[in-house]
Amino acid sequence: MGHGHGHGVSGAGQHVNKLWVAFGIGAVFMVVEFAVGFATSSLALISDAAHMLTDVLGVGMALAAIMVARRATAGRNRTFGLYRAEVLAALANAILLFGVAGYVVYEAIGRFANPPVVPGLPVLVAAALGLVANIVAFLVLKDGAEESINVRGAYLEVLADLIGSVGVLISGVLTLAFGWRYADPVVGVLIGLWVLPRTWKLAKNALHILFQHAPERIDVHEVEAALTGLVGVVEVHDVHVWTLTSGMEVATAHLTTHEKAVHAAVLDAAQNVLKTKYGIEHATLQIENSAQRCRELSW
């Protein structure tokens, strides 16, 4: 039996300070937007605050992934450490956002019949502050996004939220300039609908990992064929490929060889194919000849 060892979590430790800055900025202005949104009954501002919540959680998950990776050494009962904590947090984030988006859309539908008067100036000021916060966080994370997959995820969250902040600014301007009472619920619904597809994708990716499906970029039948085509290999069975957490993919397989095949050479060739062709650096491979072939399980 042979092992290939993984690269672990992307080396984002050097970006921890930048992530903490972005997290602090986002958390403060998220609270401001929620407070002003509920005080003025502005659905647009509440929607944007909910969107900013995704930023805060996204940055928080990037931080958690780094912190947990530092401490998540494998133990007797934690053979894969605590890497799935990031995935569970992402799923919780998605469930929360579905609830918030649903609330905003439900409230907006009720308001279209008789839209309340929303004071434009407080909404405009709060949205402007939120936009400034997003721009600062965007600039803080920009460099790190090129080097770390975790930081890149947080960076994309902030980038997307800039659109929400601009939408709320437009709502505030329309309310102040023209007194158009439909501006707020319309922008609120648009931001809610902007959040939903991203939320669905987040939930789908989290469940994909938790159910241990193969990564979408990898065709398991193609992997099996590539391993079967190696010199000395008769057939391949019990092939499993799954994602432990973002950027950490794992594989196992049993390779049945010819009687005269050199097992060490077959193992090296198999590990090389998985690493170079499919980017899988952690693989557990069992090499067996025809006489030793194990019983293949139905599951």
What is the H-and-E element order? EHHHHHHHEEHE
Helix content: 55-70%
What are the segments in which pLDDT stays under 50 over at least 5 consecutive residues?
1-12
Fourth-tier CATH superfamily name of the largest domain: Cation efflux protein transmembrane domain
Q: Quick check: average pLDDT?
A: 80
Major β-sheet, in short?
4 strands, mixed
Over the alpha carbons, how many angstroms does the gyration radius reach?
Answer: 25 Å
Order of strands across the main sheet: 1-4-3-2
The count of β-strands is 4
Continuous helix count: 8
Might you state the CATH topology name of the largest domain? Alpha-lytic protease prodomain-like
The assigned structural class equals: alpha+beta
InterPro entries: Cation_efflux, Cation_efflux_CTD, Cation_efflux_CTD_sf, Cation_efflux_TM, Cation_efflux_TMD_sf, CDF/SLC30A
Organism: Lentzea tibetensis
Keywords: Ion transport, Membrane, Transmembrane, Transmembrane helix, Transport
Subcellular location: Membrane
Summarize the structure.
Pfam families: Cation_efflux (PF01545), ZT_dimer (PF16916). It is a multi-pass membrane protein. The protein is an alpha+beta fold.
